[in-house]
Amino acid sequence: MGRWTVRRWIENGLTIGRRTIGSRMEARRTIGSRIAEGREADRPHRGRRFACLALAAALAAGLAGALPLPMAQAAGVSRSTALPTVDVALVLAVDVSYSMDVEEQALQREGYAQALVSPEFLTALKLGPNGRIIVAYVEWAGDGEQKLVMPWRMIDGPESARAVSAEIASAPLRRVYRTSISGGLLFSAALFPDSGYKALRQVIDVSGDGVNNQGPRVDTTRDEVVSRGITINGLPLMLKRPNSASLDIENLDQYYEDCVIGGPGAFVIPVREREEFIRAIKTKMVLEVAGVKPPPRAPLVVPAVNPPRVSCTVGERIWGERWNN
């Protein structure tokens, strides 16, 4: 189970370059080499500007014109006996708990809507062998508080991307009590078998600003979901500093790395400033759709020898101490 963090993709103008990349394979090799360099440059830099969008911009610059866009097909899910194949089945699972204020929720929603129609995303869409994906949009909060805001929709070009973006943007905002990342993961994982498509990859993109404090343990839930062949990527939102009145923790990014994400090529993109928000979402979705995987790495040390840096039950402990239960 490979896990790694995307923090800095570029140092001093590192780019793919302006040349045209002539094949999907070459594109993946080129992007992969940049990932390796970005991982070597990975260091925690609180307060620095977020640099992830540069990879997405490089995708657009390097691949523009190399992969022609076919005619867009109508969005929707086919129920034919021979299931059509898509490159990715992607569930966008977003936190709507009360720890997210209305402004943050609106920003989160806007980020996903903008990402779907961005040139970088549409370019990445064509990297796959089929040039199409399916997307579902889920909101989650406490255990049993999940809602399928948008069922599976197919995206194969600009027209269907605009339709899906508009559907996500038009849904009303809501806020619900408690935080159950595990409940959101289980709800999202249950959507894949009935998608109506054969997906080459299955991905849950989970974003949130707090730790699991209700429902099943998040780490055991993560393991169960990953065992089904699903990759979990994370977008921890670290816009507010924890205080005595909150249930937040300082190192939410490490919590997501050690307790939430998993599966082949799983990654985390932490967001520490509001101006990073939309760019982070865009970059995250470009990586997920393009199917860029990290280079091979050393085998993971077994958890018994190298336990998580953050307790995977820290949220349940804080909640219990707060309410004496």
Question: What does the average pLDDT come to?
Answer: 76
Q: Let me know the number of strands.
A: 7
Q: In the CATH classification, which architecture applies?
A: 3-Layer(aba) Sandwich
* Terminal Cα span: 35 Å
Spatially, the strands of the biggest sheet line up as 4-3-2-5-6
Helix residue percentage: 25-40%
Helical stretch tally: 10
The tally of domains stands at: 1
CATH superfamily: von Willebrand factor, type A domain
Low-confidence parts lasting 5 or more residues at pLDDT below 50?
Answer: 1-22, 34-80, 294-305
Form type: globular
Gyration radius (Cα, Å) is: 19 Å
How would you portray this structure in words?
InterPro entries: DUF1194, vWFA_dom_sf. This is DUF1194 domain-containing protein. The protein is α/β, with parallel strands linked by helices and 325 residues long. It has one domain: von Willebrand factor, type A domain (Rossmann fold, 3-Layer(aba) Sandwich). 35% of the residues lie in helices and 16% in strands. Helix 7 links the parallel strand 5 and strand 6 (230-236). Helix 3 (102-116) packs antiparallel against helix 5, helix 3 (102-116) crosses helix 9 and helix 4 (119-125) runs parallel beside helix 9. It is globular and about 55 Å long.
